[in-house]
């Protein structure tokens, strides 16, 4: 198991300061992060829904991308300029209205310049993913 370079409290403080566009409210909470995996929860809001009463694709993509950023920062420390190089999402089933969305992220490979990971997105307490994401992040020279 990897040793986390940032605790949940350190991640939250860093993100509030450096990335308030994504982490200034109380709608997304980091429940755990250990340098290898993380769990984020996005509290349900009607703003998440698209016509037809399902959780929108942009909501899911944004949460998945943010979860990858959090798990990466937990592994490498406060390197704010790490950026998404690729994100692929497969929508598997409808996200239920009224349910929080959980993002379970895991690093698959962490190199010096690139990190590859996956995120499973879950609706409420259902164990069945509503989307599966793979992502690659570019890590700047430090």
Automatic annotation (TrEMBL):
The keyword Flavoprotein does not apply. CDD domains: PaaI_thioesterase (cd03443). Residues 52-124 form the Thioesterase domain. The chain crosses the membrane at residues 66-87. Pfam families: 4HBT. Keywords: Hydrolase, Membrane, Transmembrane, Transmembrane helix. NCBIfam families: unchar_dom_1. This is PaaI family thioesterase. It comes from Bradyrhizobium jicamae.
């Amino acid at each position: 198991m990897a040793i986390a370079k940032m605790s949940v409290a350190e991640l939250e403080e860093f993100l509030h300061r450096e990335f308030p566009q994504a982490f200034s409210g109380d709608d997304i909470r980091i429940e755990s992060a250990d340098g290898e995996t993380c769990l984020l929860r996005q509290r349900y809001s009607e703003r998440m829904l698209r016509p037809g009463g399902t959780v929108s694709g942009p909501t899911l993509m944004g949460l998945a991308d943010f979860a990858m950023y959090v798990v990466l920062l937990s592994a490498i420390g406060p390197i704010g300029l790490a950026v998404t190089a690729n994100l692929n999402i497969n929508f598997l089933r409808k996200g239920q209205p009224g349910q929080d969305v959980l993002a379970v992220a895991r690093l698959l490979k962490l190199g010096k310049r690139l990190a590859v990971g996956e995120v499973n997105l879950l609706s409420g307490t259902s164990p069945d993913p509503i989307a599966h994401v793979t992502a690659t992040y570019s890590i700047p020279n430090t």
